[in-house]
Design brief:
Distance between the termini: 30 Å
Largest sheet: 5 strands, mixed
Number of domains: 1
CATH architecture: 2-Layer Sandwich
Order of helices and strands: EHEEHHEE
CATH superfamily: Histidine kinase-like ATPase, C-terminal domain
Shape: globular
CATH class: Alpha Beta
Strand content: 25-35%
Radius of gyration: 15 Å
CATH topology: Heat Shock Protein 90
Number of helices: 3
Helix content: 25-40%
Structural class: alpha+beta
């Protein structure tokens, strides 16, 4: 399930549309992967994989939050998630470039920030801020 809470006061910002789309799709894809993985690992048929997208107007910035209720990220892995070629996915399922490219798109190309908050076994939330 995907829910959204979009702030009507966000307005418009200048971005490279294809690049931002690629970055958001990487985060969303990873979120769905983690949420469905949690369901299969726990075997809990009542667990409902979920993802939420939220936007907030922060005056001189726009904030985008993508949150999943998946497996969470261990501390030792969290420190490496933006490193090129780092992946926790099985061979053939991930290249380790998605979050690295996402970081470059948000931070280097757009002058924004990309942070991650997580609790193991509960959630992961990526927080993107983009300047106006």
């Amino acid at each position: 399930m995907l829910t959204q809470d979009l702030d009507p006061d966000v307005g418009e910002i200048e971005v490279y549309p294809q690049e931002i789309t690629r970055a958001l799709l990487n985060v969303i894809s990873n979120g769905f992967y983690a949420a469905t993985r949690r369901k299969s690992e726990t075997g809990d048929e009542t667990f409902d994989p979920a993802l939420s997208a939220t936007t907030n107007n922060l005056d001189d910035k726009v904030e985008i939050r993508i949150r999943d209720n998946g497996t969470g990220i261990p501390v030792e892995v969290k420190e490496k998630v933006f490193n090129p070629f780092f992946t926790t996915k099985p061979a053939g399922e991930g290249t380790g470039l998605g979050l690295s490219m996402t970081h470059d798109i948000i931070v280097k190309q757009h002058g924004g920030t990309l942070d991650v908050e997580t609790e193991l076994g509960v959630f992961t939330e990526f927080i993107i801020t983009l300047p106006r």
